[in-house]
TrEMBL record:
Keyword Oxidoreductase: yes
Keywords recorded for this protein, A-Z: NADP, Oxidoreductase
Protein name from the UniProt record: 15-hydroxyprostaglandin dehydrogenase
Domain of life: Eukaryota
Residue runs in coiled coils: none
Keyword Ligase attached: no
Family under the similarity heading: Belongs to the short-chain dehydrogenases/reductases (SDR) family.
PANTHER family: 15-HYDROXYPROSTAGLANDIN DEHYDROGENASE [NAD(+)]
Amino acid sequence: MAESKVGIVTGAASGMGKALATHFASQGWRLALWDVNVKVGEELAKELGPNTFFVQCDVSSYESQANAYLATWTKFGRIDALLANAGIVERSSIFIFKYRGNKVEDVPPAPNLACTDVDYKGVLYGVQLAIHFMRHNPGKPGGKIVVTASNAGIHPHSSYPEYNGAKAAVIQFIRGAADVLRIKENIYINCVCPGIVHTNIIPPEMVAAVSPESLTPLDTITQAYAGCLADGDTRSGVILECSGKQISDIEHERLTFKNGVPSTRSVTVWDPLFKQIHGEPSGLPTALP
Ligand SMILES: NC(=O)c1ccc[n+]([C@@H]2O[C@H](COP(=O)([O-])OP(=O)(O)OC[C@H]3O[C@@H](n4cnc5c(N)ncnc54)[C@H](O)[C@@H]3O)[C@@H](O)[C@H]2O)c1
């Protein structure tokens, strides 16, 4: 019998990460649960049984992720999927309202951009390391990656301007990287964009203020992930709006250029430049020589 699949769940100690870990453990996956919350993460790994283990990891640190990947590889000897789910909202206000009375020479302190570090840089670090480790998978190299972005990355809301930007960056990164990852690395990367989900990231009072049909059940998120991670699912670069009980592929809503071909050319790969940046040609059938 084939060995069960190995997945990494980041932000596994709470909310969607916990739901994903619980779901995929019940499906027989072997899982590495990564989180900064050691106590809760360890308890969850114990609860989910011997096929899961906890790794303390701060996804905003490349070194921390590299160590967590190595620990996961040492334990399981392969990595089939990265469920890059950890995320936070902003830790300081870019609007600096509280400094409005400052004298002009009294420049406000730099913002705390931990949200960008966790939500965007954490995804870039995770994907780069996934490429490295998935190249070594025994049998067929490659694997799958699903990232939790947010509806806020598509339809921004004013409470979280930094978060909107970080999640939009994640979505655009996935759109731009998916083809090359699929063609060159046999890695399929997709994106789940939740609406409002009742987890620890948002105050319970805000959840109470939302009408029930606007709340997204945790089950909708696990279903979206399960679809992308199912055997034989070959989608890549797909952006899934997961709101209420509906999972919608919104990739077809990608904006078209108003100026047609001249503007399209501005984002068509010219292989000499791709090679200059990345060291080899893109492999994309649409690339210009
Ligand atoms: N809840 C929502 O309404 C909602 C909506 C859209 C998107 N999201 C996104 O869903 C994902 C999961 O969030 P959630 O709602 O389950 O929140 P949550 O707060 O319940 O869980 C987030 C988990 O991530 C962990 N974490 C935070 N910083 C980390 C770091 N640097 N390294 C590793 N782990 C870290 C936390 O300890 C926690 O266990 C996030 O990416 C979030 O932005 C949430």
